[in-house]
Amino acid sequence: MYSSASTARLKAARRLTKRALRQRERAFLAEGPQSISEALATRACVSDLFVTAPALANHADLVAAAADAGIDVQMVSGETMAELAQTVTPQGLLAVCGFVDVPLDSIANGVANGVANGVANKGPTLVTLLANVRDPGNAGTVLRTADAAGADAVVFADASVDPYNGKCVRASAGSLFHLPIVVGPRLPETVAALKRSGLRILAADGRAGVDLHDPRAQAMLSEPTAWLFGNEAWGLPDDLLALADESVAVPIYGRAESLNLAAAAAVCLYATAAAQRAVAQRAVAQPAVRPAASASVASA
Question: Average pLDDT of 114-134?
Answer without folding.
Answer: 73
